[in-house]
Write a structure and sequence with these properties.
heterodimer, A: about 575 residues, alpha/beta, Rossmann fold, 2 domains, six-stranded mixed β-sheet, about 25% strand, globular, B: mainly alpha, MetI-like fold, about 0% strand
């Protein structure tokens, strides 16, 4: 048997912090064979990124390798000098980072940046670099490579930038590619394109890949072998099919369970313990009268005819009935956030009406709506729980803010009692109320944001990708909390997301948007099972499909036969 | 714990006040330079407040000792050409110099922040007009502009304060504008609007406090600069008039005697000036850490 390309034995990494030394990864061992794709899966803080930084020797100043061995092709990486390491990075091992825009130099043409890497590692001279860089751009399937060579990063979309980063990483034909969350923040269809590209190119060059991700489904779909990490330890490793279909450890099971599937219900995401404590959901209730009715809504930015004129939303009409959850799905730039801002009255409309509780709120300018009696009835949960909390305010102060502004006559004691009640309602421990946002975890911050949004007992709550920035297990809990709150407080939801699997967990009806228009709408199961348009079909197809086990393949086959007979 | 559940706020208030002192101690201990600069700063404040009551001689009384006496036991910093005690004069001058620089910096901080906040938040014409106004101020050599203002408005301490405030205005306005405009559409600002905050409250209640950490660094660096500026104006004979003790005047008077060898007339006020500027330049990072909640754990 040939020795593995990368072999890590009992590696530990320590970080020096204000509260003493923290062990980020504790004696982990892993190996990657030539041509193999290994997925490292874990939630935030599991040490998956630190592992890759240790391999590349790019730990920041506070971190240091406390023990263990890293050997790459027979070399001991932890003993190598920085000068030799610089030569290895890029030529032997290269890395793709999470945010492609941040990884590119904003004031240098993308083609030149690829050429720089080639020249740096003596793979090309200044004379041949341009041609070779264009060759790389063609390899990552960028059309008009000659022209794109001259483009600056800001002129390219997120997916395009990630292609350029891949081209840079692969320019010197390295042996090992480390991709650290390469598709987080990209749309599902772009994610599929980027992942397919990485798979194709690494196979073509016979490279090994380490894919670091929090998305078990994605990792299972693209990797040969998976390694699950938790709090600096390796929990389980196995081939993708085996791990996905027959997980052995409780943590892996929990992680798998929490990842939304095509046919899971929102309660299925919880662990059995959590499920036992959860409310029993009432059988689906018939939605009542129309609560919100949007008619021919339109939004233009810039003056017509000028260079920056564009229509974000064109002729949008839909209703949300009382007690109903409506999903709004589309890729970035489809106008879904503009729509939510207009309904929330944070943005003025160009044309159209928004009728809420019998009043046309589109007629009220966004600036004056803050003092309107309906303000408290129309609230929102934001995408990024960190960004949506004032960093200088404690959780208590943040939750109390709408109460202070919208019911100023409330006595102090009542308000404090109400904040405590809200914290209990969203499951935020009362002791955490005096903490600042940076002292809370992502899930706790999400709870603070939800408590603030429901403080005024809104009728309609807009959820703008409320779980996009959260780990899957936290996402499972937050989605369930939202489902509970909906029934307890009798709210209606407008759920905005690009992830159909998540939207369908909470929503009865789904609207699919593209280029500011409704492409398709209908009941959740109808959209998921029998999409009518190509666009919806492509969105569905882009969701990563993990390898099916033999048992489930047989099961599906049986079902199909049943259906046929 | 049960107490906490019933009435969390009082408990938290006490806790957070204790936390504040704890935090101050931590910040000073973490970075020795911050500790030293806070020590020097409180020393300067003490001298400014109590100095005039503690000095051995009346700072403006002539002939308290022989003229042009070198530093010695009776006159620690020596005496000047009129027989005044240099030590007393240097100590008493602290109050005036700090007063000028603190009020000048406070004025430019308040007005600069307000202008910058409006420009950064509302943009458009507010931004354009205030931006060009600030550019105009910055187009002049700042010291010359300050000279011009004092010369035109009249030779008084208030006018030194106003002149120093005006020439510092653009730095605060620009910084506040930049810090506000990057936060203008942050999530917590949108959330504040949804919570029913009016535009002005969003601006001054939510956004502005978040710009304080970088502003603090600016303030402390500016303090040192304002002291130098005030001393510079006095040095060339504008603003504070003799015989009132002020570091700039002391240096100016002493400069005449350098050639004849009476070095102490220049060196001691110069050292006091240097020490004050040094303190304010050092204290910036410490102040920023103090007002930044993220540094509090």
């Amino acid at each position: 048997m040939t020795p593995p390309l990368l072999d890590i034995q009992r590696l530990s990494v320590d970080f020096a912090t204000r509260r003493g030394t923290v062990r980020a990864i504790d004696s982990i061992s892993l190996s990657v064979a030539k041509g193999e794709t290994l997925g490292i899966v874990g939630e935030s803080g599991s040490g998956k990124s630190v592992t890759s930084y240790a391999v590349m020797n790019i730990l920041d100043r506070a971190g240091k390798i406390a023990g263990g061995k890293i050997s790459y092709g027979g070399m001991s990486m932890h003993k190598i000098s920085e000068r030799d390491m610089r030569d290895i990075r890029g030529r032997e091992i290269s890395m793709i980072f999470q945010n492609p825009r941040a990884a590119l130099n904003p004031i240098r043409k993308v083609g030149q940046q690829i050429a720089d890497v080639l020249v740096q590692h003596n793979q090309a001279t200044r004379a041949t670099a341009r041609a070779k860089a264009i060759e790389m751009l063609l390899a990552v399937k960028i059309k008009d490579a000659e022209k794109r060579y001259e483009a600056y990063p800001f002129e390219l979309s997120g997916g395009m930038c990630q292609r350029v980063v891949i081209a840079m990483a692969l320019a010197c034909k390295p042996q090992l590619l480390i991709a650290d969350e390469p598709t987080t923040g990209l749309d599902v269809t772009t994610q599929k394109a980027v992942m397919d590209l990485i798979t194709e190119l690494t196979a073509q060059f016979n490279m090994s890949t380490i894919l670091i991700t929090h998305d078990l489904g994605l990792a299972a779909a693209y990797c040969d072998r998976l390694l699950v990490m938790e709090k600096g330890h390796v929990v389980e490793q196995n081939t993708s099919t085996a791990l996905f279909n027959a997980p052995k450890k409780a943590y892996t099971k929990q992680l798998l369970n929490a990842t939304p599937h095509r046919d899971s219900y929102v309660r299925d995401l919880l662990t059995p313990d959590q499920r036992a404590k959860a409310l029993t959901l009432p059988a689906s209730t018939e939605p009542g009268a129309a609560l919100l009715s949007v008619k021919s809504l339109k939004k233009e930015f810039g003056k017509p005819g000028s260079g920056n004129h564009h229509i974000a939303v064109r002729d949008l009409s839909f209703d949300i009935r009382k007690g109903e959850s409506l999903g709004l799905v589309g890729e970035s730039g489809c106008g879904k956030s503009t729509t939510s801002s207009m309904i929330m009255r944070l943005l003025d409309t160009t044309e159209g009406s928004i009728e809420f509780l019998g009043q046309d709120i589109a007629a009220i300018p966004a600036k004056q709506f803050a003092r309107h009696t309906l303000r408290g009835k129309l609230q929102m949960v934001f995408q990024d729980p960190t960004d949506s909390l004032n960093p200088r305010w404690s959780a208590e102060r943040s939750i109390a803010d709408p109460l202070l502004r919208l019911s100023p006559d409330m006595p102090n004691a009542d308000r404090q009692a109400r904040v405590l009640e809200l914290a209990t309602l969203v499951g935020l421990p009362v002791e955490l109320l005096n903490r600042f946002p940076h002292q809370l975890s992502g899930g706790q911050k999400a709870r603070v944001g939800i408590a603030r949004a429901v403080a005024m007992e809104p009728e309609l709550l807009i959820l703008d990708e409320p779980t996009a920035a959260l780990d899957v297990s936290v996402q499972a809990v937050v989605l369930n909390l939202l489902e509970d709150l909906k029934h307890r407080l009798g709210m209606s939801y407008l759920f905005i997301s690009h992830d159909l699997n998540v939207v369908r967990l909470l929503c009865d009806r789904i609207i699919v948007m593209q280029h500011g228009e409704i492409v398709e709408q209908g009941h959740a199961h109808q959209i998921m099972d029998a999409p009518q348009t190509d666009y919806t079909r492509s969105l569905l197809a882009a969701i990563p499909h993990p390898p099916a086990s033999d048992a489930s393949v047989a099961e599906t086959a049986a079902l199909i036969q049943d259906g046929a007979s | 714990m049960s107490n906490l559940a019933i009435n969390p706020t009082t408990d938290q208030r006490v806790q957070s006040r204790e936390g504040y002192w704890h935090h101050l101690r931590y910040i000073m201990a973490e970075n020795p330079l911050t500790g030293i600069s806070f020590g020097l700063f409180f020393g300067l404040i003490a001298v400014a407040i109590f100095g005039p009551y503690l000095v051995p001689f009346d700072p403006v009384a002539t002939g308290v000792g022989p003229a042009l006496q070198p530093p010695g036991v009776n006159h620690w910093f020596g005496t000047d050409h009129l027989g005044r005690d240099v030590f007393s004069r240097v100590v008493v001058a602290t109050r005036l110099d700090l007063l000028i620089s603190v009020s000048a910096v406070a004025l430019s901080f308040v007005f600069g922040s307000i202008i910058g906040c409006f420009a950064g938040y509302f943009g458009g014409w507010t931004d354009r007009i205030s931006g060009r106004l600030m550019d105009t101020i910055m187009a002049f050599p700042l010291f010359v502009l300050a000279m011009g203002i004092v010369a035109a408005a009249g030779n008084s301490i208030e006018n030194i304060v106003y002149a120093t405030a005006i020439i510092n205005l653009p730095f605060y306005a620009r910084m506040a504008r930049a810090e506000v405009s990057i936060r203008r559409n942050a999530g917590f600002v949108q959330a504040a609007r949804l919570s029913g905050n009016s535009e002005l409250r969003v601006l001054f209640g939510h956004i502005f406090p978040n710009t304080l950490p970088p502003m603090m660094v600016q303030i402390s660096l500016n303090m040192g600069w304002a002291i130098l500026n005030a001393a510079g104006l006095s040095f060339i004979g504008l603003g504070v008039q003799p015989p009132m003790p002020e570091w700039g005047i002391l240096v100016a008077e002493g400069a005449n005697f350098i050639i004849s060898g009476e070095w102490w007339l220049v060196v001691f006020p110069g050292l006091a000036l240097m020490l004050a500027v040094f303190t304010f330049n050092l204290i910036g990072d410490g102040l920023r850490d103090l007002v930044d909640p993220q540094r509090r754990t």
